[in-house]
Specification:
By secondary structure, this protein is an alpha/beta fold. The protein is 61% helix and 9% strand. The chain has a six-stranded mixed sheet, with helices on both faces. Strands 2-1-4-5 form a four-stranded antiparallel sheet, with helices on one face. A two-stranded antiparallel ribbon has the order 7-8.
């Protein structure tokens, strides 16, 4: 896997010429993760999803074979009708027999066609449903290191575009069985009816095979290239949509358009090339069909005039020639579908094979709800890249019910400590203990139940306010939700919403202010009722006045819980029981606010530089913040 994304600057040139195509995003990572163009393992992996529906597949194949048999039988019925009912000396009974045979063939044809379309369509939808579920489930469990390096748009391309390609393949693969059977059947019947005329018809095939030899490798390459550029364009589009505020705020619309235009143009060119390769075989096959029919008419017609060949055989041959190249044309198109499906299957199965780094041990134990809530770091060494550790032999202990703040310059490892507590990542050396247990020995589910996190950028899901607050604990009652909202000061503004707690939130809570979203995330953490509360710069995006108003709520939130706080705001840090100061991944100071100020080291310098402005806040505001809240 690539370690970093590559970004090349691309600006609009003064001379109006198109700049070099920008390389933005994780497509280099994808090339390393998502393997080669074709692999036999793909068929086996796809079959694993098809296997539960093999009974329906078998019935569909039987229906296809019955349909194919009728396609072979109809020209023979026509031949029988001409030779025994229409020529001189023919009988009415022969025509009646032919009519009955036609009626039977048409009925079987209808039933078989309906059965194959219904069965194949249902199986394809069921298989795709299972693939989507499997991918979604797996992506919920993959390590954050993978998610950090992979664009959302590229994953969406797999969940949607590539899955749709698989649907097309599944729907046509069973039909391919019928096409192959029809092709073989036509060859056998033509050789049986007239061996010489059958060989003459088949003489066109070598030309087709020679063309396909040169066509196949180029077609395969073009189909894979189309998929790759589609993913790159999808990733760029998703990134631009998610970052539209930043784009408009920095007036980068024209530059971003140029960047996306390069990717979209590359996508267009590769798809046009793939389309040309997909369609080029159709006119070739049509031309060979015309040539074969002309040969049969000339040679066969001369033999009919010489009474060396029956008219019925000649007519049947013309029908078979027309049908002979139909499955070839169909198989050519289906090959294009198959190649797209192989590329898509490669990408889908490799997503399913992305290694889950953080997994429960076979003998992992569940963290008891009665655990004391302590957190301990023992000589922890950790780095997102093991060669460049972010934390270096960090050791500290947070006692049950204690509130500890982590302070330090950007990049000192504060957020990494929080991630390790929840075991989002694995330590390289040392151990992280929760409730006296190494987190690697605990089940992730039980660990997650005892740790509630409030992040700097709260993520709210599409749904009601009520559903978002009890997201961590779905069994929470409405009364518990309201009580938590009152405790954190969110109740009043929620009641002002059109439908109160049943009001629907927009995408990521876009119809709320940032401070309101953060208050809801505080209420969510309170409802979770976890023993350990992690605040990762949770008040960074809240104005100072609102922050002071929730200080009392934080006291209630932390009551009886162990608290770990990263904050740049003085109020949260100064009231902590203990402050741990990190610098360059090392613990350099520890103590309460007064002790660290007396030491006059890094914390004191940071305080004097960044926090002294708090002293300028009018005292009456501080007193109001400490006063009892009517919403509590």
């Amino acid at each position: 896997m690539a370690e970093e994304f590559e970004t090349e600057r691309s600006d609009v040139r003064d001379d109006g010429r198109r700049p070099p195509r920008a390389v933005v995003g994780s497509h280099r990572i994808e090339e390393e993760i998502f393997g080669k163009v074709f692999d036999k393992k793909i068929i086996r992996r796809i079959w694993a999803f098809v296997r539960p529906y093999r009974r329906q597949v078998v019935l569909a194949v039987i229906a296809v074979l019955a349909f194919t048999a009728m396609q072979l039988a109809i020209p023979l019925i026509i031949r029988y009708a001409i030779d025994h009912g229409m020529q001189t000396g023919g009988s009415q009974s022969a025509l009646l027999d032919a009519m009955i045979a036609f009626a039977i063939a048409i009925c079987i044809n209808f039933v078989a066609s309906y059965a194959q379309e219904t069965l194949v369509g249902n199986v394809a939808e069921d298989v795709l449903f299972d693939i989507r579920r499997a991918m979604f489930s797996h992506l919920q469990r993959v390590s954050l290191s993978f998610m950090d390096k992979t664009e959302v748009g590229r994953l969406m391309s797999r969940l949607q575009g590539d899955v749709n390609s698989m649907q097309e393949f599944l729907e046509t693969s069973v039909l391919s069985v019928g096409d192959i059977t029809l092709l073989i059947g036509i060859v056998v019947v033509m050789l049986y009816l007239d061996f010489g005329l059958g060989l003459l018809t088949l003489s066109a095939l070598p030309v087709l095979f020679i063309v396909r030899i040169f066509w196949l490798p180029r077609a395969r390459q073009s189909f894979m290239a189309a998929h790759e550029t589609n993913s790159v364009a999808s990733g760029a589009l998703a990134e631009a949509i998610h970052g539209v505020r930043a784009v408009q705020g920095m007036d980068r619309q024209s530059v971003n358009f140029t960047l996306f235009d390069d990717k979209a143009r590359a996508n267009l060119l590769t798809h046009l090339r793939a389309a040309r390769f997909a369609q080029v075989m159709v006119p070739i096959v049509d031309t060979l069909t015309g040539v074969a029919m002309a040969l049969v008419i000339v040679v066969g017609g001369a033999r009919v005039l010489g009474q060396a060949l029956d008219v019925g055989v000649m007519v049947a041959f013309l029908f078979y020639i027309q049908r002979f190249f139909d499955p070839i044309r169909s198989l050519t198109l289906q090959y294009s579908v198959m190649q797209r499906a192989m590329a898509s299957g490669q990408r889908l199965t490799e997503v399913l094979d992305v290694r889950v780094d953080i997994e429960d041990k076979p003998d992992a134990t569940a963290l008891s709800p009665q655990m004391d809530g302590s957190v301990e770091f023992r000589d922890v060494v950790f780095g997102y890249n093991p060669k460049h550790p972010v934390l270096k032999n960090v050791s500290f202990k947070v006692n049950p019910g204690e509130t500890v703040a982590l302070v330090g310059p950007t990049g000192s490892g504060k957020s990494s400590c929080m991630s390790l507590i929840h075991r989002f990542y694995e330590v390289q050396q040392g151990a992280v203990l929760v409730g006296g247990h190494d987190v690697r020995d605990l089940t992730q589910e039980s660990l997650g139940r005892q740790i509630a996190m409030v992040l700097q950028e709260p993520f709210l899901f599409t749904g009601s306010v009520l559903e978002n607050i009890r997201y961590h604990r779905t069994d929470a009652t409405r009364e518990q939700v309201i009580e938590a909202a009152k405790a954190v000061g969110a109740h009043d503004f929620i009641l002002r919403m059109p439908e109160g707690y049943d009001s629907m939130l927009g995408q990521r809570g876009g119809n709320l202010s940032l401070g309101q979203r953060q208050l809801i995330s505080f209420a969510r953490a309170l409802v979770a009722d976890a023993k350990i509360l992690v605040l990762d710069e949770a008040t960074a995006n809240i104005d100072s006045y609102t922050e002071m108003l929730i200080q009392k709520a934080l006291v209630k939130l932390l009551e009886g819980r162990t608290g770990l706080v990263i904050a740049h705001r003085l109020a949260t840090i100064r009231e902590a029981d203990r402050i741990i100061v990190l610098q360059n991944g090392e613990l350099i100071e520890s103590g309460n606010h007064a002790e660290l100020m007396r030491n006059g080291k890094l914390y004191a310098r940071l305080y004097n530089l960044n926090y002294s402005s708090f002293d300028d806040i009018p005292g009456e505001i501080v007193e109001d913040a400490a006063a009892p809240s009517s919403a509590t």
